[in-house]
From TrEMBL:
Residues annotated as transmembrane: none
InterPro entries with a match to the protein in the record: D-amino_acid_metab_enzyme, PLP-binding_barrel
Name of the featured protein: Amino acid deaminase
Length: 194
């Protein structure tokens, strides 16, 4: 079975050397790998603030609960990876059955692709020509890569289509169309269009 994320890229995070780029990590850890630092079992008091901590049992419970709910409801779940930007967490969600990961912008998409995430949902309309060209190239280079973008109008689809035609893209981009009633609050229909 093809993995939904590059397990090797996730494992390589343990070999990352800590330095000034890691905000809350104590200066004493600079130069150590993530794995070596974690093996020293640091206490919370050693970290700077702000610092976010997660309860492992609660995290496991939430991942399992959402995976079970999606499976029972017969829906695909694409958790908001844009909230955490944590590929190791994305891996756990994907391993639990998530369809893909939802992101908000092009830099976040690039991070996900660097970790080999196979299915990405953009909770935004991608109109940037350079961004569309990059996504088209990713799709062309990887037959297993799936990408879907939210759109808010047929005009957005027309603009995306025109840009993709000029790039010579060989695969189409799937879109989810926002629908609304005249004079009403917009609703959302998650329908894929070619």
């Amino acid at each position: 079975m093809l993995s939904d994320i590059d397990d090797g890229a996730i494992a390589a995070l343990r070999d990352e050397r800590l330095d000034w780029r890691f905000k809350a990590v104590p200066a004493a850890a600079h130069g150590l790998t993530v794995g070596r630092f974690l093996a020293s079992r640091p206490s919370l008091e050693e970290f700077g603030t702000p610092l976010l901590t997660l309860d492992a049992d609660a995290l496991d419970h939430n991942i399992t609960t959402m995976a079970n709910w999606a499976a029972e409801a017969g829906v695909h779940l694409a958790p908001h990876g844009k909230t955490t930007m944590a590929p190791a967490l994305w891996q756990r969600q994907l391993d639990a059955g998530a369809w893909g990961i939802t992101l908000a912008n092009l830099p976040q998409l690039r991070v996900a692709r660097a970790f080999g995430v196979r299915r990405l949902f953009l909770a935004n309309t991608l109109l940037d020509p350079a961004g569309l060209a990059w996504v088209a190239a990713e799709l062309d280079q990887d037959a297993d890569f799936e990408f879907m973008s939210w759109v808010d109008s047929t005009r957005s689809v027309e603009l995306m289509d025109a840009t993709l035609r000029t790039t010579g893209a060989s695969r189409q981009i799937d879109v989810c169309v926002e629908l609304g009633a005249p004079g009403g609050v917009p609703g959302y229909a998650r329908m894929t269009t070619p």
